[in-house]
Specification:
This protein has 215 residues and is an alpha/beta fold. Helix content is 39%, strand content 17%. Helix 1 packs parallel to helix 2 and helix 2 crosses helix 3.
Length: 215
């Protein structure tokens, strides 16, 4: 059986309500999965709880169909209700330990560490399954995000055995530098979901991981 951390490799797409109309949510998420996305995060800051639960549930079902990992941004309770594979938390969200207690030992817990290696070391000690650094490039989604360096990824790769995720302004054209520096996953929003052809946009990332992904 594949260990859950073994699945944390490749293109990691994150949904965005500004880029994906609700009535095209399933269509566009499925297109990303057809294009090779291995991890899909549901990110939705709106207060419409029934709608969020409906869309998150659709995402979880699609990920199961395509053998991908489903992650919920910030909301541990939503992740529990829809049966997602895990949750991603930031500095203002639930602690990794709380998420683990609520979702169980089999859940995948990801933690945003911005540009701070010490946060990643703490997250690893608290049982996180992966850590995310960024922003590596200017981001249209989060223009105010702190900047992270390739050197940070290299240092983290030497000190941590758990998977590393890079985020922030990533495109298929600048992504190779991040993989070479040690990123296991590339978290992408605009370069995939703002594209006219979502499947083709996602597929552009495949060559970066073909040598390391298992069939």
């Amino acid at each position: 059986m594949m260990h859950k951390r073994d699945a944390l490799r490749g293109l990691y797409v994150i949904t965005d309500t500004a880029l994906i109309p609700d009535d095209r949510f399933v269509e566009r998420v499925e297109a990303a999965l057809r294009g090779g996305a291995r991890i899909v995060q549901y990110r939705d800051k709106r207060g419409d709880i029934p709608l969020r639960e409906q869309l998150a549930g659709e995402l979880v079902r699609l990920c199961r169909t395509y053998g991908a990992v489903s992650i919920i941004n910030d909301d541990v309770e939503l992740a529990a209700r829809v049966g997602a594979d895990g949750v991603h938390v930031g500095k203002e969200d639930a602690a990794p330990g709380h998420a683990r207690n609520r979702l169980g030992q089999g859940a995948i817990i990801g933690v945003s560490c911005y540009n701070r290696l010490e946060l990643a070391l703490d997250a690893a000690s608290e049982g996180a399954d992966y850590v995310a650094f960024g922003s590596f490039f200017p981001s249209r989604v989060k223009p105010e995000a702190v900047s992270a360096s390739l050197d940070l990824l290299r240092k983290a790769r030497k000190k941590l055995s758990l998977p590393l995720c890079a985020i922030g302004g990533i495109t298929a054209d600048n992504a190779a530098w991040l993989v070479e520096a040690g990123a296991d996953m590339l978290a992408v929003i605009s370069d995939v979901f703002a594209a006219v052809d979502v499947e083709a946009a996602a597929r552009r990332y495949a060559p970066l991981f073909n040598s390391s992904l298992r069939a």
